[in-house]
Structure formats: structure tokens, C-alpha cells
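Review form for a predicted model. The reviewer records the input and the model, then writes brief findings.
Reviewer: anonymous (R2)
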Amino acid sequence: MSKTDSLLELPTNLDRSKLPRHVAVIMDGNGRWGKKQGLARVVGHRQGVDTLKDLLRCCRDWGIPALTAYAFSTENWGRPLEEVDFLMALFEGVLRRELAEMNAEQVRIKFVGKLDALPPALQDEIIKAEATTSKNQGIQFTIATNYGSRQEIVQACKSIAEGVKNGSIDPAEIDEKLFGQHLYTHGTPDPDLLIRTSGEMRISNFLLWQLAYAEIYVTDTLWPNFDRQAFHEALLDYQQRHRRFGKV
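Model under review:
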């Protein structure tokens, strides 16, 4: 067996029956990685894209059916303008270059967030990517872009309130399931595992509702260095957890 083949196969010390069905990642540390290399912060973002591509394919190879990545938060608009402009152009360029290959690999792409505030050219690429891959049967790849969980929850409340006002929703029928149907992530199971890189101990307004019972794994590794070995270690840690969901 070649080294490449061994990287594609699930490591023998992982239990396939105990893998998370959905992994969410907060990709932190790109800028710091760039500065540590003596380069601009934006170089770290470019390297971070390659890391995300490999993680997506690793999830596919190892049998994890859903991956959600926190690409750009509603708070990230406060970064330097040149960095924000670079990120928008980076997202657009990656979608344009990678769509054909991801579609061939049966990746199903979904974007969540306040997408109408993004640059028009990027919105066009998002619409094309979602439409092109909508019927694919492979891994579900969700990209949270201009996403903030508090904003998402407020939007869901407004949507439900409008339904009550126009008579399409009976207040007595409002429960967790109905509420979830009004979130950006409706149709995607909640994450089982949240991974945050760079050692920051917070979830930064990411999937506040959906992460209610996710296992949280924090590593000091900067995102561009988060390779398959690092993911393997995260999964080993996850499989040692006892998920009781409030029960004994």
C-alpha cells in the first residue's frame, strides 16, 4: 500500500461506527500563520483554503457525510478593508476554479448567512455553485459566509412571527423542530463535533442553536497547519467522549 493510499483510508485506531456525522470548524489562525512565515496575513488565508480543501476530501475519504466551515463572520467586516476585499476575491476565485472538480466528486455545496450583503460577483458564483451541486449525493459542504448566529436566530424569530401574523403558523405549534426549519441550516443535521484551531476558547457567534450538544475540541494548531494527522487526533479525542445528552 502506498503512503497516498494509507492517507485515504480510515486510520485503524478509529471506530467507524463512532465517527461524527457532521463536523463544524472555526478556521482560526490564518493571519498569525502568515505573520509567523514573515509574510502578509492574506497569504495565510490563501494557505487556509488548501487546508479546507484537504479536510473536505478527508471527511469524504473517511466516511463523514457533512462538514461546515466558518469562512466569514458578520463581525469580520471590521477587519482592514484590503483584507476584506482580498477574502471576497479569494472566495469568488476559489468557487470559480474548484466548482467543476467538487461537482465531479459529488460534493453538495450550501452557503449560509446574510448572502445578499456580499459582492454581486460572489453572489453569482454562490448561486451557480449551489444550483450545480444541488442533486449531488456526496458530502454536504456548508460554508458560513457573512454569518452570525445571533442574526440567524433573530431572523428565524421574525420569520415565525410573520407566519403567526398572517395565520400560516399556529403559536401552539411552535417547538424546536419548527424553529429549526426557519434557520439558515434547515435540512442539515446539527454538528456532532466542533473543532476550533489556534487555541481560542470561544465559539464566536457560530451555530449557537445548532451546537447545543456538540463536542468541542480546541487545538493550538493554526488553521493552515491543521492537516489529516491533526484531524485524526481530534477524532480520537471525540471518540473518547461519553455523549449522554443530559442523561445518566
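Findings: The first strand starts at residue 22 and ends at 26.
Further findings: The chain has one domain: 21-239.
Recommendation: see findings above.
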